[in-house]
UniProtKB/TrEMBL annotation:
Keyword annotations: Flavoprotein, FMN
Top-level taxonomy: Bacteria, Katanobacteria
GO molecular function, one term: oxidoreductase activity
The protein, known as: Flavodoxin family protein
Organism of origin: candidate division WWE3 bacterium
Domain named NADPH-dependent FMN reductase-like: residues: 4-149
Keyword Protein biosynthesis: no
InterPro entries: Flavoprotein-like_sf, FMN_Rdtase-like_dom, ISF_SsuE-like
Gene3D superfamilies: 3.40.50.360
Length: 180
């Protein structure tokens, strides 16, 4: 129970999400006297496929697809606190973090939504310039639906003043109003 399960949804082990999670993890561990257990999500972790393994409901407990999911899920079972972090991809969490979160549904569903009750989660999103809020919102909704208590959320952006005229934010050249 004295662990903080840290789940990294980045594709870069030495990237910015990792740096952010290290800093937040240190803060949470100091505050609650916890030891971190770190997981870098496998690039090929599967998402829920609604496989209907159980005749009576969609899921079986601990999921039928065997991959990194089971190891992380058991670590969460042994912990009271979880920290998840993701880079922003088109205003959304990374595909592999979404895949992983969707798999957690079997644990909530097969325990009458008790599995995550009393477990606290901190959510972090990291981006170049935009999309952290929508990413946090998506993850908060999913985590609340699973039954987690949202303990905290945080964002980082590393935008610098642009020195070029590249079009950003999904605009075309015709839409753009460039300042000189
Ligand atoms: C496919 C893709 C989509 C991205 N979409 C956004 C975005 O919508 N907004 C943004 O500010 N940054 C976006 N980024 C940039 C990443 O969020 C940013 O570089 C992040 O810090 C990368 O974290 P990492 O070092 O852990 O990989 C995107 C990057 C990729 C590869």
């Amino acid at each position: 129970m004295n662990t903080l399960v840290v789940i990294n949804g980045s594709y870069h082990p030495d990237g910015l999400t990792t740096q952010c999670l290290e800093a937040i993890s240190k803060k949470l561990c100091d505050k609650h006297n916890l030891t971190p257990v770190n997981f870098f999500l496998d690039d090929n972790i599967r998402g829920c496929a609604s496989c209907r393994s159980d005749k009576h409901s969609d899921c079986v407990m601990w999921c039928r697809f065997e991959d990194q999911f089971q190891t992380i899920a058991h670590a969460i079972q042994d912990a009271k606190r979880v920290l998840i972090g993701t880079p922003v991809y088109l205003d959304f969490p990374s595909p592999k973090l979404l895949a992983f979160i969707s798999r957690l549904n079997c644990l909530a569903e097969k325990t009458n939504r008790e599995f995550f009750r009393g477990r606290y989660i901190h959510i972090h999103a990291n981006a170049y310039v935009s999309g952290t809020k929508s990413t946090i919102q998506v993850l908060m909704s999913a985590c609340e639906m699973l039954g987690f208590t949202i303990e905290g959320r945080s964002t980082t952006e590393y935008i610098q003043k642009w020195s070029d005229h590249k079009i950003r934010g999904g605009m075309t050249q015709e839409d753009a109003c460039l300042l000189s």
